[in-house]
Design a protein that fits this description.
The protein has 1 helix and 4 strands. By secondary structure, the chain is mainly β. It has one domain: Nuclear Transport Factor 2, Chain: A, CATH 3.10.450. Strands 1-2-3-4 form a 4-stranded antiparallel beta sheet. Strand 1 and strand 2 form a beta hairpin.
């Protein structure tokens, strides 16, 4: 069972002064267009330190983007850790 984080939770992690991110990278991105909606899948890798302790994780992601009045906006985002 995993954890669920909201947008404020993600921002809190990213802005936490005890968190130092050394690597944050996206890879294997694929975009599937459906009219004014895009579904993006890929991989995310993050490595750093929190409270002086090293951490590293690799996630898979699915983001859904909607083009509204000429501007793209994320309307849904899902990250999950793949089974080993």
């Amino acid at each position: 069972m995993g954890s669920t984080y909201s947008k404020p939770g993600y921002i809190t992690h990213s802005a936490d002064p005890s968190v130092h991110i050394d690597v944050a990278e996206l890879s294997d991105l694929k975009v599937h267009m459906h009219g004014n909606t895009a579904v993006v899948t890929g991989a995310y890798h993050e490595k750093g330190r929190q409270d002086g302790k090293a951490y590293e994780y690799n996630d898979r992601l699915t983001d859904v983007w909607l083009k509204n009045e000429g501007t793209w906006q994320v309307i849904s985002s899902h990250y999950s850790v793949p089974l080993k």
